[in-house]
Amino acid sequence: MKYSKATLYGFLLSTAPSTVYASDPTGLYVLFVGFPAILLAITNIFIATKSPKYALILSVFLTCSLYFLIIWSSDVGYMDREGGYLILSCLLVGVSIAIAFINIMNKKQESWRPNYNWICSVCGVTNKKDTVKCNNCGNEI
């Protein structure tokens, strides 16, 4: 396939960094990368207060994406000027992880108790859902 010289020159110019990047794209970086990273981290804090297990999963994904964003930003040179936004979002993700762990540890683990009336396996008596021992024979769940 034969290409014209204008197409080849256009391709070469579009791959040159001086034509691809604006002269000072820091404002765009803050608008499209910095603020969304902070907003996602703050949203993750609110999720950690309501459902901590899902917040931990989201924290893993957000931490991985922030890791690659920080590597890219340091290669391009944004971490020198506006890297505080990503560092702040990393700190907020750490806060959400701490809140999620605290909520998981403080939540009473009552999943082993039945949510229904249960029948004793020894004597066959029906017991209420809040009891741990059988009312008739004393058998534990």
Quick synopsis:
With 141 residues, the protein is an all-alpha fold.
Distance N to C terminus: 78 Å
Strand order of the largest sheet: 1-2
Proportion of helical residues: 55-70%
User: Beta-strand level of the residues, as a percent range?
Assistant: under 5%
- Roughly how many Å is the radius of gyration? 28 Å
Number of separate structural domains: 2
Overall, the morphology is: elongated
- Total count of helical runs of at least 4 residues: 6
Instruction: Output mean pLDDT.
Output: 79
| Strand tally | 2
SSE string: HHHHHHEE
Contiguous runs where pLDDT drops below 50 for at least 5 residues: none
Which structural class fits the helix and strand makeup?
mainly alpha
Sheet with the most strands, sense and barrel status:
2 strands, antiparallel
Question: How is this structure best described in words?
Answer:
This protein is an all-alpha fold. The chain folds into 2 domains: 25-107, no CATH class; 109-141. Helices cover 66% and strands 3% of the residues. The protein is built from 6 helices and 2 strands; from the N terminus they run H-H-H-H-H-H-E-E. A two-stranded antiparallel sheet has the order 1-2. Helix 3 packs parallel to helix 6. It is elongated and about 90 Å long. The N and C termini lie far apart (78 Å). The model has no long low-confidence stretch (mean pLDDT 79).
